[in-house]
């Protein structure tokens, strides 16, 4: 679909005003000048390139494919879903037992300090997780020892 720079600018202005942003405020958010944004909105700068459209979308807090379509660009399905499926990562603090217990072949038990890598591995290893002395939940239901044992039995049946 072909769209004129004036039509694109008019729609862009409408979106900006819906977000209650001035040209100056939007410009500061995305590092573009108020004058340049004004030229885009008045159709005097042509249709912006995809990089500028991505900046505009970020400043307006909308998915860039909405603006790309508005500008008349064709978008592949992969591009359309890029960013929708990806979620930002959040760092959280989790307290885990810092000592590991290992049984040797002759029945002895050895204890030792776990490395950061070993703690990370254990955090995502179902066997280790089910054997840890931490509260576990499934769909907000606390897993007691009986529940944990049932889960371990099911996993052993599936994988061993």
From TrEMBL:
Gene Ontology terms, MF aspect: DNA binding; DNA-binding transcription factor activity
CDD domains named in the record: HTH_XRE
A Pfam family per the record: HTH_3
Domain of life: Bacteria
DNA-binding listed as a keyword: yes
GO cellular component, one term: cytosol
Keywords: DNA-binding
Domain HTH cro/C1-type positions: 12-67
PROSITE patterns (alphabetical): HTH_CROC1
InterPro entries: Cro/C1-type_HTH, Lambda_DNA-bd_dom_sf, TransReg_Diox_bact_type
Name this polypeptide is given: HTH cro/C1-type domain-containing protein
Originating species: Priestia veravalensis
């Amino acid at each position: 679909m072909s769209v004129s720079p004036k039509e694109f600018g008019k729609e862009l202005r409408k979106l900006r005003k819906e977000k209650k942003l001035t040209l100056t405020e939007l410009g500061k958010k995305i590092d573009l000048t108020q004058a340049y944004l004004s030229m885009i909105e008045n159709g005097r700068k042509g249709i912006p390139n995809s990089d500028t459209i991505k900046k505009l979308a970020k400043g307006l807090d909308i998915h860039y494919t909405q603006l790309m379509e508005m500008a008349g660009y064709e978008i592949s399905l992969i591009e359309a879903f890029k960013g929708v499926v990806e979620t930002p990562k959040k760092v959280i603090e989790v307290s885990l037992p810092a000592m590991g217990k290992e049984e040797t072949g002759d029945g002895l038990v050895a204890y030792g300090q776990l490395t950061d890598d070993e703690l990370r591995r254990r955090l995502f290893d179902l066997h280790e997780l089910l054997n840890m002395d931490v509260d576990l939940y499934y769909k907000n239901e606390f897993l007691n020892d009986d529940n944990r044992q049932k889960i371990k039995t099911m996993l052993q049946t599936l994988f061993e």
